[in-house]
Amino acid sequence: MNNPYESQSARISFISRQTDNIKLFRFELGKKIKYQPGQFVELSLPGFGEAPFAPCGDAKENYIELCVRNAGKLTAKLHEMKVGDKVGLRGPFGNGVWPLNKYDFKKQKNLFIAVGGLGFVPLRTLILGKDDLLGSGTKVQIFYGAKSPDDMLFRHEYDRWKKQNIQLELTVDKECVGWKGCTGLVTTLFDKHEVVQNSVAFICGPPVMYRPILEKLQKLGFADEDIYLSLERRMHCGIGVCQHCAVGPYYTCKDGPVFSWAQLKTIPEAI
Hints:
Elements: E1 8-19, E2 22-28, E3 40-45, E4 49-53, E5 63-69, H1 73-80, E6 86-93, E7 110-116, H2 121-128, H3 130-133, E8 140-146, H4 158-162, E9 166-172, E10 182-183, E11 199-204, H5 210-219, E12 227-230, E13 246-247, E14 250-251, H6 252-255, E15 258-260, H7 261-264
Parallel strand pairs: 7-8, 7-11, 8-9, 9-10, 11-12
Antiparallel strand pairs: 1-2, 1-6, 2-5, 3-4, 3-6, 12-15, 13-14
């Protein structure tokens, strides 16, 4: 959009419940919004505010999908809305790109992803576009942790992903009835599964998980410049005006939200 402050009207065309308090919304804008995995948009409702969300759909489609947790005034109102209702969207913002252009995934690199909770949301776009963005031969390995099986996002898609050469390993925080898989934090999966070799690592999720995963990856020999983290939680205005997202010399909304650990490791407040 030419004016970064101006929102476009977007109509809700599909709603899918993911968990008790998370829904996936599909928005039609009448034209295609071009975005890349890792970028974000600002969603607004008059009288209820505005907030940033990462698209999680297939970037080739003419609609945009957002996965939203009911966690405040704006999101509570959005969760009450129905197909046909309208919101405002502006963006996309951020340089946004998980470093897809830096590596020749089709020839050299595999991809390791460690995610927790809602961290799966911005990476779904990458997974859906895997063959185009990475190549059908790229090995993708995902370690995903959630509070419980019912809190796992996109559960109905896992079987399809596995058919696309994606290794998906799951864990839940605590033992629960009916769950026969791994129990423990995401780091527990490192002790049970060998991390795919010759890979670059993407990390996204609650900040508390970042340092333990970084330690695991460094012990495995990952270089700092081959580990990438998303700091999307810090974003606010989207265009670097409010300075809410400042991290050392960077504005998360303009220089990120994706950074390599080589960029962040000397900034005390980064994670």
